[in-house]
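Contributing new records

If you add data, match the layout below exactly. Sequence lines come first and carry their own label; structure lines follow with theirs. Keep one chain per record. Anything else will be rejected by the validation script.
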Amino acid sequence: MKDIQEVFDKLKEHSSEQKQIREEYKDALFQTEDYEEIKEKIEELTIRRKEIEAVVQSRMGSRWNKLEDLKNEITELKQMQSDIAMSTLMAGKNIQVKDEFDNVYEPKFNVTFKKTSAKEITPLEK
């Protein structure tokens, strides 16, 4: 298995190259004749779409508000589910849930890294 630092360095290198290629792509788009004109039309249509959506949302009234409430509650429940799963995993227990059809679900964890102001993170002592 590769060292995590090697993988991190390669990821940063690829991300940097990807960013450079995207910039080249944007420059090429702006040099195309119709691109700006089409982009402006899309912005106008987007504004019109949002106006229509606002009218429909106001007509729906409490049902639209219920949708927004459900969206917020789902976000909170997902966070709670994640916290419970991590606590259960840290306790050394098996984690799984089942749906109404007895399909078994197992957790999928994703690790990301966030830049810090520290030069080095000291390991936790036991």
